[in-house]
Amino acid sequence: MDSRSLPLVSIVTPVYNNADHLSECIESVLAQTYQNWDYVIVNNCSTDGSGEIAHRYAAKDQRIRVHENQHFLRAIPNHNLALRQISPLSKYCKIVFGDDWIFPECIEQMVSVAEEHPSVGIVGAYGLEEDATDGVQKHEVAWGGLPYPSRLVPGREVCRRFLLEKTYVFGTPNSVLYRSDVVRSRDPFYNEANLHADMEAGVVLLKTCDFGFVHQVLTFKRWRPGSLGTFTAHTHTTIAGQLHCLVAHGRDFLTRQEFDICLERLVSEYYNYLGVSFLRGRRDKAFWNYHKRKLSEASVGFSRTHLAGAIIARLCRALLNPHESIERLRKHKSVTVQRASEVGDRSRLHTVPPERSDGVA
């Protein structure tokens, strides 16, 4: 079949200093079994040669072009700018981050699901994640939770699973395909005030469309020292993102009783995390100011009494389970030493806040 008869897929890669991995990313796009695509690489004022790599590929393949940002943008505004570059003729669009890549059948399999089910606005799949932030390279398959085959799942059901059971299948922007019309219908596509804007975008879109899923590993995500993903894991920004989604959108999917139960449970989990962080010596103002602000933005508010209760509960648990507590402390010290090294390296190398401008975790 002539590839030109297939729906056009616009691929975008936001890039900021990804020279070590950018060629691998671009080669994974070139290796796709699905060939009717155009490709825009958005260079966000890189200083490590990423732009030169992108231009070399663009010179060899007319389907590839490079957009050069005139000014440096932070992560989510840069993602929105990248999505504004998609072709007006495209039916689907795919983000591939500059330090990640996709398997050869990724676009073909995702488009197949979307074409089979016109109500689908987002298509996800399993993803392979590589994590070497603690000095040991580990791989695991992520974004599971839907029963097989589940090629089509009502958007409402996916969001209810997320809010009630924390079954999160959206993954990252690198792991999903969007229908271009739903991207064009929102500008900016991602909420630039939300660090986990991809999570929120998924919830918002699934109010009016369905979710498609391919039960294959189709994407690869790399967690690297100094990346936004590593920063979010260290600060546990995900729980703030979950709280925002629940408060802002939960009532659209849950009964009043379900919403109240989910809110109580999530706030308790939030304070438990803060209590553990306090007991482990977390005192940096940026960490506490961030979480205080997020609790206030969610109209929950920060309560010292609630924090004290969480700390006491954790101390009681530690006294009742001393061996477990010692083992957790050993693991925590090991991770803390590694992360302190990463933060030190990042502070020497970057003059911008600890937020990469190519990916959202």
Write the layout of secondary structure elements.
Layout: E1 9-15, H1 22-30, E2 37-43, H2 50-60, E3 64-68, H3 75-83, E4 92-95, E5 101-102, H4 106-116, E6 120-131, E7 138-142, E8 152-153, H5 155-165, E9 177-179, H6 180-184, H7 197-205, E10 210-223, H8 228-235, H9 237-249, H10 256-279, H11 285-297, H12 304-320, H13 322-349
Parallel strand pairs: 1-2, 1-4, 2-3, 6-10
Antiparallel strand pairs: 4-9, 5-10, 6-7, 6-9, 8-10
Helix pairs in contact: 7-9, 9-10, 9-11, 10-12
Report what the structure shows.
Helix 7 (197-205) runs parallel beside helix 9 (237-249) and helix 9 (237-249) runs parallel beside helix 11. The radius of gyration is 21 Å and the shape is globular. Helix content is 47%, strand content 17%. It is built from 13 helices and ten strands. The chain has 361 residues and is of the alpha/beta class. Residues 335-361 have low confidence and may be disordered. A hairpin with a 6-residue loop joins strand 6 (120-131) and strand 7.
